[in-house]
Amino acid sequence: MIRLEKRSQPSREWSIATPILAVLITIIVGAMLFSAIGKPPFEAIRTIFWDPLFGEFAFYYRPQLLIKAAPLVLIAIGLSLGFRAGVWNIGAEGQYIIGALSGAGVGLAFYPIEGLYILPLMVLAGAFGGWLWAMIPGLLKVKFGTNEILVSLMLVYVAEQLLASMSLGLLKNPEGFGFPGSRNLQQYPSAHNAELIAGTGMHLGVVAALIAVIFAYILLTRHRLGFHIRLAGEAQRAARFAGVEPNRLILFCLGISGALAGLAGLFEVAGPAGQVSIDFNVGYGFTAIIVAFLGRLHPVGILLAGALMALTYIGGDIAQSNLGLPSAAIQVFQGMLLFFLLALDLLTNFRIKFGKSEVA
Amino acid sequence: MSTTALLNLDGLTKAYPGVVANDNVTLSIGAGEIHALLGENGAGKSTLVKMIYGLVQPDTGTMTLRGAAYHPNEPREARKNGVAMVFQHFSLFDALNVSENIALGMENPPTMRDLASKIKSVSQTYGLPLDPYRTVGTLSAGERQRVEIIRCLLQDPKLLIMDEPTSVLTPQEVEILFQTLRKLKSEGTSILYISHKLEEIRSLCDHATILRLGKNVGECIPAQTSARDMAELMVGTALTPPERTQRDLGPTLLQTFDLSTPAPSAFGTALKSINISVKRGEILGIGGVAGNGQDELLSVLCGETTVAAEKISFAAIPVGAMCPNARRELGLLTAPEERLGHAAAPDMSLTENALLTGAIREGLENRGFLKWTAAKSFAEKIITAFDVRTPGPDSSARSLSGGNLQKFVIGREVLQRPKALVVNQPTWGVDAAAAAAIRQSLLDLATQGAAIICISQDLDELMEISDSFSALNEGRLSTPQPVHDLTVETIGLMMGGAATDAALQNQEATV
C-alpha cells in the first residue's frame, strides 16, 4: 500500500528538488519516446540540451537563447504577480501585440528623424499600449464582475486582427512594393533596439527582463505591495482584513503584467523581429504562462524556467533539422516537462508512506 | 444506568505524525445511557468519535458493539451497525429544502412525498418542529441542527454521537434538544455527548469520561461531581477564574448611529439600525445565535465594509468610511471569528501573520518596505506573552492547533495596545486554560481603559466578563442591559428578538 499524507508545512527541500527531478524524468522518458520512434535517444537528448550551449555551432545558438528567453521571462514575471494574487491574465499575447504596435507606431511616426529620444519614447509607448490593453479586462472585472480569463483571452484575437490590419494598412511600408508589413526598424537607427554587444544577443529586452526579475524579487519579499499580493492569493478574506483593496490589486496586477508584455513586444519588434508583420506574434504570451508556473511563480525560478524553455525550443529546432525528429515529438517532450513538474509538485505538500494503512 | 454495555472500546490508540491523538483509551457505553465525553480541545475527543464512526481507523485496540467485534472502515458501515453522528459543522446545502437535503445522505431514498411525511412524523414524535419543505438557507442554526438530528433518527440508530450540539443554540433551543435526547434515552438509544459545557453535562448525562492529552484520565457521575472538579480533571491543574477588578468607566469612545447595511449575499444578514455606545473601560457583550449578523457587524466595525462616515464615531472622529488600516492607526482594532483564512492566512508564517494587522501600529514597515526583523520579534513577543505553543515564528498558521492560533490572533491585537477592540467568538473551540487566558487579557485591557465589544455565542463567557449585554437577532441589536440584573429568561428573550424595550421595561418593573 502506498498512501499520501499531507505535510503540516510545505517542504522547502522538495520545492527545490522537484523541478530538477522533473527535468531528469523528462529526459529519461523522452529518451524512451525518441528510441520508440526509431531515433537515437542519447543523441537526441544531447542535441536538445547540450548542442545549443556547448556544441559546434553554439556561437550561433547562444545569442538565440537570450533572444528567446528574454520576452518569455519578461512576460512571465508580470503574469506571476497576478497569478500569485489570483488574478488570471491569460491574454499576455494580445498585450504583447498591442505593445509592439504602439511602440512601433510611435517610432514610425518619427521616421526619418534621428534622435536619442525616439527609442525611449517607443519603450514608454510599448509599455503603455500593453497596460491599456490589460486595463480592458481589468476595468470590466472591477466594474461589472466579468471574468478576466475570458475577456483577456478573447482580446488576444482582437489584437491579432488589429495586427493584420495595421500591417496591411496604417503601418504598411510605403516603399515596400505592396508587401504587407511595416518599415524595418533595424534599418532606422534611432528606433532600432540593437544588440548592446555585437554577437551576444544581448539587447535592451534582456536587460529589462533581468531588471524585472530583481524588481519582482524585491517587491515580493520586501515590499508591502508584494505581501498584499501573496496574501490576496492565499486568503482573500484575510487580505481584506489586512486592508487590501481587492479592486486596486486587480488593476495593479493586470496593469503590470500588461505593461511588461507590451514592453516585451516592443523590444521584439524593434529588435530581433524588426518589423510589424501579420505573423509577428509567435505565442510568447502563452508560453510565458507555462514558464511562470514552471518557475513556481518565483522570480528566480522564472528566470531559470525561461532559460530552460528557450533551450528546449532551440534544441528542439536543431533536433528537427539535424535528426529529423517530428515536431510533434518535440511538443510531447515539452508537454512532458510540464506534466512531470506539476505531478511531482504533490511531493512538496504531501509525503508518501509505504506500508499497510491500517491495523484492523 | 444500564448494566449491559452497548459499545466497548478497548485500548484504542491512534497516532498522527508528531502526536498521539488517542493513547490506549478504554471506555464503555451502556444501552440507554447518555455518556459524556469531556475534554479540552486537542484532548482527542474528535479522533475517538471518528474511530467509532469509521472515519479513522485505530492503530491498535478493539471495539465491540453489542458483543460482536466492530471495526467500521467507513461511515456507511457504522451507520449500518446503528451508529449515527451529528457533527458540529453541518453538511447541508443552503439552496435545497429539508427533504432534499436528507434524501441526499440516504442510500436508497424513498419518494419525496414519503420522505416528507416520515420527516414530519419523526419531528412530531421527538418534539423537533421542522417543515420538510423549507429551504435550508432560511433556517436558523438550531433548525439546521434538527435537520441533522432527524437525518440520523431516520436510520433508527442504537448509538447517537453528538459533537458540541449546543454551541449554536439559544437557551430555549437547548431545552428542546435536551427533552428530545431524554426521550431517545427512554427508548433505549444510547447517546455519546461531546461537550465542554460542564453545567449541561451535569444536567443531562448519566456518566462522563474525561480525556486529557489523548488519555482517559477519569470517569465520574456528573450529577454527583461539581463542575469545578470536572474542569480540573479536564485541564489537569487548578483553574483560576478571571479577576474582575472594579473599573471606572470613562467617556464614550465608540458609537454607531442607526447603522444599517444590506445583506452581503443571499445567505448573509442585513444589519438594521444598530446603535452601539461603548465607554472607555467598558466591555459590551453581544450575544445571539450564529448567523444573526455577527460577522456583518464585525466587518462594518473593522472597515471591511464601509458606510457613510458619520454612521460610526470613534473618539469623536467619524470613521464609517475609513478602511481597516486607517481605523487601526486611530486605535480601533478587531479580531474576526474565522481564524484560518480571515484573521490569519493559513499557509503564511506567524511572522507574516503578525505583519497582517500589526504593520501600522507596530511600525513594521518603512515607506512600504517591510521590516522583517521587527515583524519577527513582534511575532515572538506574541508567542511568549500569550503562551502560544509552536516551534517558532517561522511555523505556518495552519500548523497550529485552533486554540493556539486563537491565542496568537487575540494576542496580536491586544499587544498593539488598542483603544478599542472588537472580537468575535474569542474563545470558540479553545481549551479551558487558553480561554481563561484570553478572557483575562480582555479584562486587563478594559482595566487599562480600552473599550471592548465581545461578540460571542458563549453566554457564560459574556456573563463572566461583560459589563452590559445585548443580543443580535436577524440583524437587530437589542437595547444593552447591565449584566448584573439580567435573568436567563431575559437573555433568552433578547436572543429570540422578543425583547422590545417595552417588554424589558415591564420586566424590570416587576423585578
How would you describe the overall organization of this protein?
The complex is a heterodimer of chains A (360) and B (511). With 360 residues, chain A is mainly alpha-helical. In chain A, 70% of the residues lie in helices and 3% in strands. In chain A, strands 1-2 form a two-stranded antiparallel ribbon. In chain A, helix 2 (41-49) crosses helix 13, helix 4 runs parallel beside helix 8 (204-222) and helix 4 packs across helix 13 (299-323). By secondary structure, chain B is of the alpha/beta class. In chain B, 34% of the residues lie in helices and 24% in strands. Chain B has 17 helices and 23 strands. In chain B, strands 13, 16, 19, 20, 21, 22 and 23 form a seven-stranded mixed beta sheet that branches. A six-stranded mixed beta sheet of chain B has the order 6-7-8-3-9-10, with helices on both faces. Chain B has a four-stranded antiparallel beta sheet with strand order 2-1-4-5, with helices on one face. Chain B is globular, with a radius of gyration of 24 Å. The model of chain B is unreliable at 507-511 (pLDDT under 50).
